[in-house]
């Protein structure tokens, strides 16, 4: 029986699509039970529905400044759908300790850098500005500290002469679509992982 997974998005959700496509394979250990967006106009909601995945908008603006109430609604929807693991896929809203603690060891995120390098935003521009020779992406467990959880998987790409933010981002994104499904499959095979222990699944691609 496949592990039931919920995905949180804010926009188109290209990593969501990679996870959904992987989960459509009969031998993949996880199934996507629900997609939730904090934006009602997120294109990813329609894309998920086209794949037959239930999709739900729970807009943050409906809750005003009450982030706890917003996350409680998200948490309830995930549990009502029987989700056992949560994947963040372009979810552009900082989480509170409530949701992080409720899904400790069972919530994944993908970040467009080789953590611990370049946590936060504008990773490709920062890598280029620093003269980095290698860049990449990381799947990690979510903790209260942004982009600082145990690493589950990484993929590296070379920074090429003449690279722009856009060209570098495109190569990194291709690797994101590869390692996110691999990391999720590994995690579901290992069941819940304590928040202080990651899975060694390092996939360099240079």
List keywords for this structure.
206 residues; alpha/beta; 8-stranded mixed sheet
Tell me what the structure shows.
It comes from Acidiphilium iwatense. With 206 residues, this protein is α/β, with parallel strands linked by helices. The protein contains six helices and eight strands; from the N terminus they run βαβαβαβαβαββαβ. The chain has helices at 14-23, 43-50, 67-80, 97-102, 123-129, 165-190, and strands at 3-9, 30-37, 55-57, 85-88, 107-111, 134-141, 151-158, 201-202. An eight-stranded mixed sheet has the order 3-2-1-4-5-6-7-8, sandwiched between helices. Residues 191-206 have low confidence and may be disordered.
Helix residue percentage: 25-40%
Question: Secondary-structure element sequence?
Answer: EHEHEHEHEHEEHE
Query: Poorly predicted ranges (pLDDT <50, ≥5 residues)?
Result: 191-206
Strand content: 15-25%
Please tally the helical runs, counting DSSP H or I stretches of 4 or more residues.
6
Strand order of the largest sheet: 3-2-1-4-5-6-7-8
Alpha-beta content class: alpha/beta
- What is the arithmetic mean of pLDDT? 92
Distance between the termini: 36 Å
From the alpha carbons, calculate the radius of gyration and give it in angstroms: 16 Å
Sheet with the most strands? 8 strands, mixed
Overall body shape: globular
- List how many beta strands DSSP finds: 8
In brief:
The chain has 206 residues and is of the alpha/beta class.
Mind sketching the topology for me?
Layout: E1 3-9, H1 14-23, E2 30-37, H2 43-50, E3 55-57, H3 67-80, E4 85-88, H4 97-102, E5 107-111, H5 123-129, E6 134-141, E7 151-158, H6 165-190, E8 201-202
Parallel strand pairs: 1-2, 1-4, 2-3, 4-5, 7-8
Antiparallel strand pairs: 5-6, 6-7
Helix pairs in contact: 1-6
